[in-house]
Design a protein that fits this description.
The complex is a heterodimer. Chain A is 50% helix and 0% strand. By secondary structure, chain A is mostly helical. The longest helix of chain A has 20 residues. By secondary structure, chain B is α/β, with parallel strands linked by helices. Chain B has one domain: Alpha-Beta Complex (Amidase signature (AS) enzymes), CATH 3.90.1300. Chain B contains 16 helices and 11 strands. The longest helix of chain B has 26 residues. Classes of the chains: A mainly alpha, B alpha/beta. Chains A and B meet through helix 1 and helix 2 of A and helix 10, helix 11, helix 12, helix 14 and helix 16 of B.
Chain lengths: 58, 468
């Protein structure tokens, strides 16, 4: 396959994935929610991380 | 002095007056002079200034003045970090490709804490590429087997630490570029959470996926470096305002009861047999330490790879397209091909990819971190392959090979999660094997603690390559 053709094939595959999944996005979903997701998923600040314990959920 | 002094232990030894900054700096520079012609870890060695700095630090120590946690400890920086007085090639043919008004914040913080800068480290061109080759500065060489890949793009950082040329190094990681060379070279490397360490003063490859982090011999060393590097920075709008934890103090906390997830899907598929055995053995060791190991099904990591890849291609071409347009002949074929791909990504799809990334990060948090505290997965699918074979063949094969080598690291760039690569054995061919511990956002303290506990129970990270 020529250099151009294999790149076109790679790009088409990537764009296909985006197109397939983007249909599920709601109007409220925006890129900046990524940093919100990180902050929301973090343990409490200054707690020295997740503490091991035998409890089934935290 | 040991051939391969450890960063945290050396910082403590300097404090106790058992070894001097000049002695350690000279030790590293002597090794650079003796070995780096063969290993090519450095692009620029700054010997005179390093010795001058060590001398000043030694005088200060004599007066009882200590700059910080790394007083007198020699380190080196990937050659995309701006350091006052040194060129920043970013692995390109242009000696000073990247300039910034301010010194790299992360490096600057290490130096302010008393670290000694030995120089700037080799890397793949523009930080693209997973293998560690560089057509302009010479291919970095794996200290465990010089004909094998070092992993990239922070190739020189991996080699310098593994060969005992520097006690610690800064690497950057857009798709695995800290963890791949850490794994291939048998050292420890941490990609922190997105925004945990400022990116200011370091060349960007992809604003959305770039991370700076420490590379050293052990998790303890990485914790000490991260403690100094992490924190808010007004010069980087993406740096989190969240205060860093006390990573060093947290190292000795309990690991009993931590829930360690081992994915059923993706990460163990198509894995080299020895790699899989070593990673599973590492997980078994974690269980003996009291961790509760559970199998888990992850949201499709390949989708994350695709989305992360598309975002990286778009952003890297926006950043470095000028070089592609004006001096394409200066670029290696692989870099040129990756940048060209970015020219064809429609803005609409780029933005959809960023929206999807935000959704996937939320999904991952909901589905994974409700079940486990940490994930344990392989870093590289096989031991570092021979470099010549990895660079042979048509470009499409080389691109595919690079993609396969980084397929286990890239999902965590898209998710922005902290991931710590740790050595966990050697292949029958004598090449390092590795696994990574991945944690919740901003939970570096837990991955470092579990990594430290693992390294107290094993000795893989203490092994030293024979460089005689």
């Amino acid at each position: 396959m020529s250099e151009n053709k294999f790149q076109q094939a790679e790009l088409a595959a990537l764009l296909g994935v985006i197109e397939r999944l983007a249909g599920e996005l709601s109007l409220a979903e925006e890129p900046a929610r990524f940093t919100t997701a990180l902050e929301e998923g973090a343990p409490a600040a200054g707690g020295g991380g997740t503490l091991g314990s035998p409890g089934p959920s935290r | 002095m040991a051939d391969f002094p450890r960063l945290a232990a050396t910082a403590a030894a300097i404090r106790q007056g058992k070894v001097s900054p000049i002695e350690v700096t000279r030790h590293c520079l002597d090794r650079v002079a003796r070995l780096d012609g063969r290993l090519r870890a450095f692009i620029t060695v700054d010997a005179d200034r390093a010795l001058g700095a060590a001398r000043r630090l030694e005088e200060e120590a004599g007066r009882g003045q200590w700059r910080g946690a790394l007083h007198g400890v020699p380190v080196a920086f990937k050659d995309l970090c701006v350091i006052r007085g040194l060129p920043t090639s970013c692995g390109t043919r242009t000696a000073d490709y990247f300039t910034a008004e301010q010194e790299c914040t992360a490096a600057s913080r290490l130096l302010a804490a008393g670290a000694v800068c030995l120089g700037k480290l080799n890397m793949t061109e523009l930080a693209m590429g997973a293998l560690g080759d560089n057509p302009h500065h010479g291919h970095a060489r794996n200290p465990w087997a010089v004909e094998h890949c070092t992993g990239g793009s922070s190739s020189g950082s991996g080699v310098a630490v593994a060969a005992g040329l520097a006690l610690g190094a800064i690497g950057t990681d857009t798709g695995g570029s800290i963890r791949l060379p850490a794994a291939a070279c048998g050292i420890t490397g941490l990609k922190p959470t997105y925004g945990r360490v400022s990116r200011a003063g370091a060349m960007a490859l992809s604003w959305s996926n770039d991370h700076l982090g420490p590379m050293a011999r052990a998790a303890h060393d990485c914790a000490l470096m991260l403690q100094v590097m992490a924190g808010p920075d007004p010069l980087d709008a993406t740096a989190s305002a969240r205060p860093p934890d006390d990573y060093v103090a947290a190292l000795d906390g309990p690991v009993r009861g931590l829930r360690v997830g081992v994915p059923r899907n993706f990460f163990f598929q198509g894995l080299d047999v020895e790699m899989e055995a070593a990673v599973r053995q590492a997980v078994a060791t974690l269980a003996t330490l009291g961790a509760r190991v559970e199998e888990i099904h992850l949201p499709d990591p390949q989708v994350l790879n695709d989305i992360t890849g598309l975002v990286s291609r778009s952003e890297s071409t926006a950043l470095h397209g000028g070089l592609l347009r004006e001096r394409p002949h200066e670029l290696g074929a692989f870099t040129r091909a990756r940048l060209e791909l970015g020219l064809s990504v429609p803005a609409h799809d780029y933005l959809q990819a960023l929206r999807l990334r935000a959704r996937l990060a939320r999904t991952f948090t909901r589905e994974v971190w409700s079940e486990v505290d940490v994930l344990a997965v392989p870093v590289i699918p096989e031991p570092a392959p021979p470099l010549r074979a990895a660079l042979e063949g048509p470009l499409e094969e080389i691109v595919a090979r690079q993609g396969r080598f980084s397929r286990l690291t890239r999902p965590f760039n898209g998710l922005g999660l902290p991931a710590l690569s740790l050595p966990c054995g050697f292949s029958t061919g004598g090449l390092p094997l590795a696994f990574q511990l991945v944690g919740r956002p901003f939970d570096e303290a837990t991955v470092l603690r579990l990594g430290h506990a693992y390294q107290r129970a094993t000795d893989w990270h203490t092994r030293e390559p024979d460089l005689a």
